[in-house]
Structure prediction request, 442 residues.
Amino acid sequence: MREAVRAQLWPLPTLGVVLAVAAGVGLPRLDARIQQDIPPELRDYLFGGSADAARTVLQAIAGSLISVTALTFSLTVVTLQLASSQFSPRLLRTFTADRYVQTTLSLFLATFTYALTVLRTVRTGDDEQVMFVPQVSVTGAFFLTLASVLGLVLFLSHLSREIRVETMMRSVHSAADRTVHRLLPEDDSAAGHTGTPPEPPADALPLPAGRSGFLTAVDAKALLEAAVEADAVLLIDRLPGSSLIAGTPMGAAWPRTGEPFSPEARTRLLRRAAEAVSTGAERTEAQDIAFGLRQLTDIVAKALSPGINDPTTAVHALSHSSALLCELAHRDLGPRLLRDDHHLRVILQRPDLGDLLDLAVAQPLRYGAAEPAVLTRILMLLRELAWTSTPEQYSPIVATLARLRSTIEARDFPTAERTRLAELAQQVEQAMTGCWTYGRPH
Prediction:
């Protein structure tokens, strides 16, 4: 729920409107109580016009702020369309979750709402009403307007920076890095949370998904409690971010002791397992380790499309993917095993290094097979990953290198480029032996 709210544009502006209404109601009442007690030296800094002047000021503020808000929202929508069409639809969360955009919209809407709310309290003395000008409240509207003008300037500067692809990739990289550090602590293996899981028996009970959508989160604690209660072993074999279809298996369960489940225990286990798995309309980084790599790979694929043809952006995105993979190589990947005091209870599938490397390289290799700059960066990615990995992790690197060499051999590159790519491939193999060759390949 926190991730869903964070990626929406409306919660923070809604809170700003509510606070503005409260301030627009409360400050005029405070004005009425303290108006006669305001020191003269302070009164000089407050609004000193008549009721008509106060209404004119508040009307001008309200009218201009709603126009500025419409402009800001229009620019945000244009930015979202640009990011979706030119880079990737999965980058939209980066903009809608931008606190700067949310805060700016909140400030504009709060100022507009506050000015309208205070406007209703201004009385001119007609119709047998006592004239009332809330000096403190009108002055507050003036300062909110100044803050809004400053916010508009800063917002335009922020927006011009955010629509640059380098900024987008850095934002994706930072979010993915936070997800890695949150979900994959470096001491995970010491805690006994990883290892080789057992294979489910042939008569294992399928666990159907309760709802269709993308798997966004798994409540590991709830699954562990359900497994202990039923004296069972539960396997969730779908990765976070994968698509679930209601009624189809997302895992399996089997009795730990071999005794079959009673009908009541079976029904309760199926229900609790379905409730422990959350789905959503889109992928999020809540528990999805691979989501950042997916976004970066989308940028690479879009940059290499014939309509855009921007290999430089693809190379830059591959650099971010390389940094993420090198960070992930230091973490304990693969299945997460949960135990009670003595027994294995829950198996949660997570991507291993081979899955993540294939995600980062397969599509760029396919779409950039004819571009030496892209192939060069992929070879450098393999070299960097080989240098930071352990010998147990070399298998996917070797397989990817073999596929890359086959792709190079199938292309009609000039001799100089073919030689340079071959030397880079050799440097990947040297990195796996602990040797780093300095200098550029000839």
